[in-house]
Automatic annotation (TrEMBL):
The enzyme's E.C. designation: 3.2.2.23, 4.2.99.18
Keyword Lyase: yes
Similarity comment text for this entry: Belongs to the FPG family.
Protein name in UniProt: Formamidopyrimidine-DNA glycosylase
Subunit structure: Monomer.
Domain of life of the native organism: Bacteria
InterPro entries the UniProt entry points to: FPG_cat, FPG_Glyclase, FPG_N, H2TH_FPG, Ribosomal_uS13-like_H2TH, Znf_DNA_glyclase/AP_lyase, Znf_FPG/IleRS
Keyword DNA-binding set for record: yes
Protein role: Involved in base excision repair of DNA damaged by oxidation or by mutagenic agents. Acts as DNA glycosylase that recognizes and removes damaged bases. Has a preference for oxidized purines, such as 7,8-dihydro-8-oxoguanine (8-oxoG). Has AP (apurinic/apyrimidinic) lyase activity and introduces nicks in the DNA strand. Cleaves the DNA backbone by beta-delta elimination to generate a single-strand break at the site of the removed base with both 3'- and 5'-phosphates.
Organism: Phreatobacter oligotrophus
Listed GO biological process terms: base-excision repair
Length: 294
């Protein structure tokens, strides 16, 4: 599933053609994806202008004139394709696992005043599009319990200390808790923990003092999280193989992996003396070095 840097990369690919453009026509070709489409969705989109295209956690947010917001999630297999006549169109953020171009899975098609056609394709239909008033967005069930963004100043050692205090849960699981930090996913938690020298298996509460203050190790983790996310966004993400933005950017962060998907390979900190291990935590693969992550 796309993580925050991949979603941000898709947002940046869509922004030039969608932001400020009026939706001339909207075609919705089925009744639902993961959830039913909003009532009269196509009718409510047609004629509206996309005033801004944002992101919260792993959700894309399209603000429309009239103060509605479309909440979009890519799910497991969703992708957007931009077509500029007379070309056939290219996928925005072509993922490591190839995204579908099969028209049978084109579920939403938007014709824009920018001259582009934006198509949402989703073979497995785990993605979704919802609509809510901007004034109530923060209270929407998908948004209300989201934690701080890992890219902003709200992510601090003090915030994590308050969330981790007394927690026996593994550190990796605590960081994947979207109510604590919104948007962190499996790849980037593995990478951040390796750079910070912290074991994914240690209890989250061990990074908090008896008085509730962050330990030195927790202080070190926060800037590392920001660093990993920033590098991944700058590289165009790591689930991305080819990138279809007009600039031709490619997703290169996978070449910077220290541990993720490197089971059996030498640890980039320890050298050949120690190799990357893979374990399963809560049904997800965790990659780490047992020698340098404590």
């Amino acid at each position: 599933m796309p993580e925050l840097p991949e979603v941000e990369t898709v947002r940046r690919g869509l922004q030039p053609v969608m932001e400020g453009a009026r939706i001339l026509t909207a075609e919705v070709r089925r009744a639902d994806l993961r959830f039913p489409f909003p009532e009269r969705f196509a009718e409510r989109l047609a004629g509206r202008t996309v005033t801004s295209l944002g992101r919260r956690s792993k959700y894309l947010l399209a603000d429309l004139d009239g103060d509605d917001v479309v909440i979009m999630h890519l799910g497991m297999s969703g992708s957007f394709r931009i077509a500029q006549a007379p070309t056939g169109g290219e996928v925005v953020g072509d993922f490591h696992h190839e995204r579908s171009r099969d028209a049978a899975h084109d579920h939403v098609v938007l014709s824009l005043s920018s001259g582009a056609t934006v198509t949402y394709n989703d073979p497995r239909r785990f993605g979704f599009m919802l609509m809510t008033p901007r004034a109530s967005l923060a209270d929407h069930p998908l948004m209300a319990k989201l934690g701080v963004e890992p890219t902003g100043n709200d992510l601090s050692a003090e915030h994590l200390a308050a969330a981790f205090r007394g927690k026996a849960a593994p550190l990796k699981a605590a960081l994947l808790d979207q109510s604590i930090v919104a948007g962190l996913g499996n790849i980037y938690v593995c990478e951040a923990l390796h750079r910070a020298g912290l074991s994914p298996q240690r209890a989250a509460g061990t990074l908090v003092t008896k008085g509730g203050d962050p330990t030195v190790r927790l202080e070190r983790l926060v800037p590392v999280i920001r660093e990993v996310i920033a590098e991944a966004i700058a590289a165009g993400g790591s689930s991305l193989r080819d990138h279809a933005q007009p600039s031709g950017e490619l997703g290169y962060f996978q070449h910077s992996f220290h541990v993720y998907d490197r089971e059996g390979e030498a640890c980039r900190r320890c050298g050949d003396a120690h190799t990357v291990r893979r374990i399963v935590q809560s049904g997800r693969s965790t990659f780490y070095c047992a020698a340098c992550q404590r």
